[in-house]
């Protein structure tokens, strides 16, 4: 992400016009749509919106006539950010759930393989479809592809329109007083709230008409090969229920038992005080507008007002991440703060592997990395600690950490992943101060005082007393022996010394003139 130059702003607004700002024109010709589609059905192109509730593209199409629900598997169009292994596992099960929901609605899900434009043109020829609707995505490659497809379809007299199903506020509509994009969260969120309440969510359609004629050829979900061959997916299945119903259940659970302790409890990894909605939001199994509506309704009762506001602000951070990605797409690989291009990152494959495997000798870090591997998810407080450990204790590039998260997180989202890693590294928008170097031991003592989280994911340390479980390397030999812990054998010694690592990180930061030498 670079400075907010005029050319960058124009690029962002132009993309908005191509894939979004024409929505008023599209919504203003509903009658013309119905007339223009009299000769054929509408294709509803599902992507990261795998739900029936509050799905604008589906609702618009279903209200006007027969529909053809379509999903196109085209990972090559995502470039280096094709879905990782955990995301593919989730997608498989989410598609199974969507297929079941659409079947109950009376329409079959058609699955094709990409390229997307060729797949769409093929379906149009086979069915004489006269319209294609989809809900927008905001990643750079997706914007470029969708704009090209929209233009190409319209030149063929195909009604092609896109809708907002993923965000509360479109990235190009939120601007500073100077007309620029935002680089700091607080003024961004204030501007969002000042613009008014998000639009109300639409209910799921109760019925839909399928396209008539011969059955449309479709790939099976299984033929896409999304499921991993490794047994680690068993842990994902125990931890999650992908699909629209799973997302609604998580929201119900959160409102019943998590929201009233959210403001303080969200930092305690050993307890379930967070919403766990991130993978459902990423796959579009639940609408942010529906979440907003449910939370605002809860708040209106006067219960847990501060907790609700804190959670809604976290939804705001998701909006901020997409705002940043939209206006500065280069930040997926390049630091916003250009000084960090000179940062003296190290190359240490052994240290990177130890971090990935949860074998650093720092129990909170190891618990987090093992939770990630076992469940495809990690508690947000712990995400900050493990990320800080990689980039500041080990001086390994944040891009290495982002790549590992991309492959192993079920909620791997390009906007959120980029914002989070650049924030921790200190090189992004609204970044953590350069001198903020988390001490994994004190973080563990503060947020997991009894070691419940560590005992769950690092069971070889479970018999250690509370006072020693956060730093086994400092425990007496008698305590270690009684707990059956042998440093270097049953549990690793620390791969780096914290005071030394902190001093080394500050020295590296001084070398790029972020701090005085």
How helix-rich are the residues, as a percent range? 40-55%
Tell me the CATH architecture of the largest domain. 3-Layer(aba) Sandwich
Note the quaternary state here.
single chain
pLDDT under 50 segments (min length 5)? 1-18, 20-37
Largest sheet: 5 strands, parallel
Nearest-integer average pLDDT: 91
| CATH superfamily label of the largest domain | HUPs
Give your account of this protein's structure:
It is a single chain. By secondary structure, this protein is mostly helical. The chain folds into two domains: about 1-205 and about 220-330, Rossmann fold, CATH 3.40.50; about 340-510, DNA Cyclobutane Dipyrimidine Photolyase, subunit A, domain 3. The chain is about 50% helix and about 5% strand. It is built from 24 helices and five strands. The chain has a five-stranded parallel sheet with strand order 3-2-1-4-5, with helices on both faces. Helix 13 runs antiparallel to helix 14, helix 17 packs across helix 19 (about 415-425) and helix 18 (about 400-410) runs antiparallel to helix 19 (about 415-425). The model is unreliable at about 1-20 and about 20-35 (pLDDT under 50).
